[in-house]
UniProtKB/TrEMBL annotation:
Species name: Dillenia turbinata
Stored Gene3D superfamilies: N-(1-d-carboxylethyl)-l-norvaline Dehydrogenase, domain 2 (1.10.1040.10), NAD(P)-binding Rossmann-like Domain (3.40.50.720)
Organism phylogeny: Eukaryota, Viridiplantae, Streptophyta, Embryophyta, Tracheophyta
PROSITE patterns listed in its UniProt record: 3_HYDROXYISOBUT_DH
Residue ranges annotated for the 3-hydroxyisobutyrate dehydrogenase-like NAD-binding domain, each copy included: 167-285
Function, as annotated: Catalyzes the NADPH-dependent reduction of glyoxylate to glycolate as well as succinic semialdehyde (SSA) to gamma-hydroxybutyrate in vitro. May function in redox homeostasis and play a role in oxidative stress tolerance by detoxifying glyoxylate and SSA generated in glycolate metabolism and GABA metabolism, respectively.
Entry keywords, A to Z: NAD, NADP, Oxidoreductase, Stress response
Alphabetized GO MF terms: glyoxylate reductase (NADPH) activity; NAD binding; NADP binding
Transmembrane segments: none
Name of protein: 6-phosphogluconate dehydrogenase, NADP-binding
UniProt keyword annotation of Iron-sulfur present: no
Domain annotation 6-phosphogluconate dehydrogenase NADP-binding: ranges: 5-164
Catalytic activity: 4-hydroxybutanoate + NADP(+) = succinate semialdehyde + NADPH + H(+); glycolate + NADP(+) = glyoxylate + NADPH + H(+)
Superkingdom of the organism of origin: Eukaryota
Length: 292
């Protein structure tokens, strides 16, 4: 597998870390990114550059996509010089972006109609787990491609799940991020409430960390939030996209989600305050603002 050419489309926060990881583990990687300059560091570490998504697909048996949202994932596949132009029998496309199930199904149908294989494989875990190969991979679609891709997933993640038909990986990812977004809002409100009640926010972090609600997210993000430091690990605009897509899934399935809906409003407010490119923990600023 290490000798097989692996393509990588999308070198944002996650894609760059994941492609770098593959290179470090001896894979031959050909990269493409809309903003070409983001390829430079990967090239310094041995990657080749493909001129377009189509060129990458043509060269590589397996290609991974890691794009920001449904519009980007669709554009890379369906636009001129996109993935679809070069897909042929035996090619495998693995979309690891977080999108909705319909987007994934549209991509899957188009690729399989041309004889290619498709799986969606969105990930749980942020920049650091991506750098450390500790992601949780939520795959679904063509089982044979999933099995062939396991050597890649073993490098990128600490555990991969095969969840059945296309759409199930996307849905699982949206459920997870809906929970995460709601948690971040409750956490932010707690920090503000502690502060306004004359309590130490640092002591609140210590109390939380010793009990049943202890978790790596509070532990990692809490101290930075208290310092109003929001270096982007997971951009807030993407968290709001995931809340929006999860709420749409709730519409389809008639699941009432008032907590998630309120959290989505806070993320929207944060975007309107110009915080979209900061870490999603910057929603804390919105809560501070609302509480006056
Ligand atoms: N960061 C995290 O913690 C995290 C964790 C789990 C899942 N995810 C998901 O993983 C995906 C990538 O996240 P990220 O944090 O790496 O995002 P990011 O840093 O914003 O990178 C987004 C990537 O998508 C590309 N892109 C955006 N619009 C495009 C378009 N119209 N055509 C072609 N390429 C386009 C960007 O290209 P340019 O460089 O040209 O802008 C960039 O390569 C998202 O779906 C996100 O929800 C992120």
């Amino acid at each position: 597998m290490e000798k097989v050419e692996v393509g990588f489309l999308g070198l944002g926060i996650m894609g760059k870390a994941m492609a770098m990881n593959l290179l470090r583990h001896g894979f031959k990687v050909t990269v493409w990114n809309r903003t070409v300059s983001k390829c430079d560091e990967l090239v310094e570490h041995g990657a080749s550059i493909g001129e377009s998504p189509a060129a990458v697909i043509k060269k590589c048996k397996y290609t991974i996509g890691m794009l920001s949202d449904p519009a980007a994932a669709l554009s890379v596949v369906f636009d001129k010089n996109g993935v679809l132009e070069a897909v042929s029998s035996g090619k495998g496309y693995i979309d690891m972006s977080t999108v909705d199930a319909d987007t994934s199904s549209n991509i899957s149908e188009a690729i399989t109609a041309k004889g290619g294989f498709f799986i969606e494989a969105p990930v749980s875990g942020s920049k650091k787990p991506a750098e450390d190969g500790q992601l949780i991979i939520l795959a679904a679609g063509e089982k044979a491609l999933y099995e062939e891709a396991i050597p890649l997933f073993d490098v990128l993640g600490k555990k991969s799940f095969f969840l059945g038909q296309v759409g199930n990986g996307a849905k699982m990812k949206l459920v997870v991020n809906m929970i995460m977004g709601s948690m971040m809002n409750a956490f932010s409100e707690g920090l503000v409430l502690a502060d306004k009640s004359g309590l130490s926010q640092n002591t609140l972090l210590d109390v939380l960390d010793l009990g049943g609600m202890a978790n790596p997210m509070f532990r990692m993000k809490g101290p930075a939030m208290i310092q109003s430091s929001y270096s982007p690990q997971f951009p807030l605009k993407h968290q709001q996209k995931d809340m929006r897509l999860a709420l749409a899934l709730g519409d389809e399935t008639a699941v009432s989600m008032p907590v998630a809906a309120a959290a989505n409003e806070a993320f929207k407010k944060a975007r309107s305050m110009g915080l979209g490119d900061l870490d999603f923990s910057a929603v804390f600023e919105t809560v501070k603002h609302l509480k006056g």
